[in-house]
Amino acid sequence: MEKEYELIDNEERHQYEFHVEKYTPKIEYIKSKNGEIYLTHTEVPPQLGGKGIGSQLVEKALKDIEKQGLRLVPLCPFVAGYIHKNPEWKRIVLRGVHIG
């Protein structure tokens, strides 16, 4: 069973993050003034790789984005790949943005 981590929206650093032991897996973002959020980069320290932490981070970030009513532009290949595998999340992607 995967451990559940608490999602932190670190607005000062423009990133969603988890605090796992001494590490900080994160998804960097840019929020526009007109209700869009661009997820630009996902980073999970190599010491935490293979534990599903990146996927959990993406899922919790998507839930938060949906709760805020923002439209998503997934520029990060990891986030786009997650949405490709979980197409129900296309509902929050900005219209006209294609996920390959």
Automatic annotation (TrEMBL):
Domain called N-acetyltransferase: residue spans: 8-94
Domain of life according to the entry: Bacteria
Alphabetized InterPro entries for the sequence: Acyl_CoA_acyltransferase, Gcn5-rel_NAT, GNAT_YJDJ
Pfam family, one: Acetyltransf_CG
Matching PANTHER family: BSR4717 PROTEIN, PROTEIN NATD1
Protein name per its UniProtKB record: N-acetyltransferase domain-containing protein
